[in-house]
Amino acid sequence: MKTSDKRPATSDKRRQRLAASTALVGSGHFEQQEFPSLVTCRLSLVARRGFTLIEILMAIGILAVGLLMAAVLFPAAIKENQNAFNNSMGSLICENGLTALRGKLKHEELTVTPATPNVLDAVSTTLGSRNFLGDDALYPSGDAAASMGYTGLLRKLSADANDYELTLISYNRMEKNSEIKAPRIQGALADYTYPASEPESKFGVTSKFTPAPATEKKWFQRNAVIVLVSQNGAVLHTCRVVRVVGNDVILDRKLTPATPMFAYPFAEVKKSDGEPLAMPSPAMSMLTARVAL
Known about the structure:
By secondary structure, the protein is an alpha+beta fold. The chain has two helices and 15 strands. The strands form four sheets. It has a six-stranded antiparallel β-barrel with strand order 8-9-12-11-10-13. Strands 3, 4, 5, 6 and 15 form a five-stranded antiparallel sheet that branches.
């Protein structure tokens, strides 16, 4: 038999594996590593490393600080939003009320004097025989279930002439079974200086109203709108209550001291017993206008 050039089968299989591995390397899927009498292939994709526990804790800490800083801003933003709503909506209600009352109030029907302003909260002999407010003073007008509305105080500036001053206060009631009242309370108006330990001390001297008797201080709710009138009706001030300290009602502005002085605090009261609610005043905005009726 003639000697043939046949190579061992194991050598052919080795060449086939080498060719296959070379083709894979050329396609970019694998890399080739040669060892003595061995060809191995491995993936070229390098496994990605995960986050360590320290990195996760640091990320959580940074996130917590950011959320805390954002949470601090929420109360201030809510308060500013409420103030903006009160200013815009309250002013609109007061302007609507001014237009409505100028059409309802008639000079020949009024017996208001400069020294005795009249609160527009019910049927009054000094305002005639009609209730000038009622459901018409609610917002939306005529909606008995509405919580917003307006009330006010009418004062005559001249004994004979058709010359009046109309002060309107818009409100947003907190309770359903409540209404807005403004009793006439006598007291004294004097200067007040904040203690140096309080933040308000930077504002310097303001004013305080001391009601008599002291039990009447219950009517002065925080942020309430009050109208102050002198005994002869010549002086009128409109301001807000900052706080009540002892028997003194601290006001938001400095006024000329006077005694006696009459205050009309507009407060939210219960319909059942007429007692003022122990909560901030529902007053939104106020408007004072000099009108001829």
